[in-house]
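To illustrate the input format used throughout this study, we show a single complete record. The first block contains the structure-token representation of the backbone; no residue identities are included at this stage. The design step must infer an amino acid for every position from geometry alone.
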């Protein structure tokens, strides 16, 4: 069955993250849950060990009087990070994951804004913690992840002495268990409150829609909800192994070592992987041969013969040998990369999500994909277009168990974001007859021209981004003119590259409505400033 609607997958329903840890700890007890390297030593943690560690650390937190408290967590991806998250929320404490890429002052601001009672941090964040102490923040407890083993040991002793309060505690899946500060491209971060039900529901229904090949390498930062849900929660649900990547510099090496069946990444990684495949082919003098092989393979596929795994074995081997699925999220992806990887036998699934929706709202499925779309809403989630225009475009509204509990300490922003139970995403899109969602822009980025015409810069950025030599682009209004600001990484023939870009933009203009046409082009010498999720910060 290829590119047709088909039934959803049956999965085990789990109502909260505590039930998830208990379920996976029993069902997959001796299987490896986590793998990582530390100091040149390979470490493996079984599901049974993970469950025991969560119980021990959670019991330790209870011994400190931390109940219904807020626990900040700041540091790089690690086993200790995941352990702290589950130990906190499974005891009805609220976890506050903070982006390690933020400046020390910004970290302190979030520690203060969230009113945390405890901060768990990695050694790399020692300066930020020192600053928070100097500022006199009312944080009762600090715990460095280097000392987490001592805390786990203390918790084990309490359990051995008969302390079962944490293990017997029943969580309320409706109450907030996490405050996630957004890292939007505009405006100050808001604290999104998510519950066990939000997160468990999003993972469960996403897994109903997807088939994920066994095992993954966790590349995305865990403090972002997509990274945590896709790389950790969903894997624990199905009993797969999670290899924790410790540095972006070693992503390809870790993929070759761990040999995952799938990975979840942002589009930038997909693009780089794909470009590197063709750069390698060109370097080896095999580019034309690869192009011809793809043509032959696609012709054979039309006849029902699929030999992609054999024909493109060298590509597969370079990606570990087992990688058959790439899940792309966090930003739009050009469909040429989805098609390009499909030619090589690797499926790329993209979707749409937003932190306030836990975060996955819609996804293309393994065998039901429409290029250019972000897929269909996951089961039980409702999506509608508010006040669509003549083209069917309007603001995307979402309803379902995945929708947040509100913004922390910000009732006005919460009220503004909700309409009769529907979350107002601020994103603009359309829905086709099959229920596939298409994102066309962001409400706050909308350009309204003097003639009243609306221009969505993201639409133009996607088109310009396909032009050769364009590395990054931002479209905005400047003096009443639609302007494209472009960065090209081409260095050897930069002037020729700029001339080629200008010519291609002129050709693009011929295909656009007059009011959408690019009237001014600016070239910049350096890359755009980006958020920690690698999105360009808009003006």
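Output of the design step:
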């Amino acid at each position: 069955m290829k590119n047709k609607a088909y039934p959803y997958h049956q999965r085990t329903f789990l109502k909260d993250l505590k039930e998830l840890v208990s379920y996976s700890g029993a069902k997959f007890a001796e299987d490896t849950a986590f793998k990582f390297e530390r100091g040149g030593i390979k470490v493996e943690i079984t599901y049974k060990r993970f469950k025991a560690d969560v119980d021990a650390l959670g019991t330790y937190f209870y011994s400190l009087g931390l109940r219904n408290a807020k626990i900040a967590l700041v540091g790089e991806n690690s086993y200790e990070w995941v352990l702290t998250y589950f130990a906190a929320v499974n005891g009805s404490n609220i976890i506050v994951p903070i982006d390690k890429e933020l400046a020390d002052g910004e970290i302190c601001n979030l520690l203060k804004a969230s009113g945390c009672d405890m901060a768990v941090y990695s050694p790399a964040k020692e300066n930020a913690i020192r600053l928070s102490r100097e500022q006199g923040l009312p944080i009762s407890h600090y715990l460095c992840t280097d000392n987490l083993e001592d805390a786990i040991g203390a918790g084990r002793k309490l359990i051995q002495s008969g302390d079962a309060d944490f293990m017997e505690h029943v969580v309320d899946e409706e109450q907030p268990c996490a405050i996630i500060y957004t890292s939007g491209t505009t405006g100050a971060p808001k604290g999104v409150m998510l519950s066990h039900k939000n997160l468990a529901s999003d993972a469960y229904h996403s897994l109903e829609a997807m088939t994920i090949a066994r095992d993954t390498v966790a590349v995305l930062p865990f403090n972002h909800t997509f990274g945590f849900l896709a790389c950790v929660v969903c894997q624990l649900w199905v009993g797969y192994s999670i290899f924790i990547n410790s540095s972006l510099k070693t992503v390809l090496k870790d993929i070759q070592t761990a040999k995952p069946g799938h990975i979840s990444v942002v589009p930038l990684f997909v693009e780089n992987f794909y470009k590197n495949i063709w750069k390698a082919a060109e370097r080896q003098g095999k580019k034309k041969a690869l192009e011809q092989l793809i043509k032959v393979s696609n012709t054979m596929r039309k006849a029902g013969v699929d030999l992609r795994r054999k024909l493109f074995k060298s590509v597969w081997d370079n990606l570990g040998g087992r990688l058959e699925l790439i899940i792309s999220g966090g930003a739009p992806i050009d469909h040429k990369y989805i098609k390009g990887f499909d030619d090589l036998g690797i499926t790329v699934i993209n979707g749409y999500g937003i932190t306030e929706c836990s975060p996955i709202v819609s996804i293309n499925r393994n065998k039901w994909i429409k290029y250019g779309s972000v897929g269909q809403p996951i089961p039980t989630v409702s999506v509608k277009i508010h006040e669509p225009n003549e083209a069917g475009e309007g603001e995307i509204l979402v309803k379902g168990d995945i929708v947040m509990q509100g913004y922390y300490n910000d009732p006005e922003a919460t009220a503004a974001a909700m309409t009769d139970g529907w979350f107002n995403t601020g994103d603009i899109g359309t829905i086709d007859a099959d229920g596939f969602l298409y994102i066309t822009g962001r409400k706050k980025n909308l350009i309204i021209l003097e003639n009243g015409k609306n221009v969505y810069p993201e639409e133009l950025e996607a088109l310009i981004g396909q032009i050769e030599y364009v590395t990054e682009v931002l479209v905005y209004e400047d003096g009443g003119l639609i302007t494209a600001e472009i960065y090209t990484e081409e260095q050897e023939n930069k002037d020729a590259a700029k001339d080629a870009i200008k010519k291609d933009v002129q050709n693009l203009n011929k295909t656009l409505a007059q009011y959408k046409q690019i009237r001014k082009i600016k070239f910049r010498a350096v890359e755009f400033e980006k958020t920690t999720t690698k999105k360009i910060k808009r003006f």
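Structural context for interpreting the output: The mean pLDDT is 94. The longest strand covers residues 422-431.
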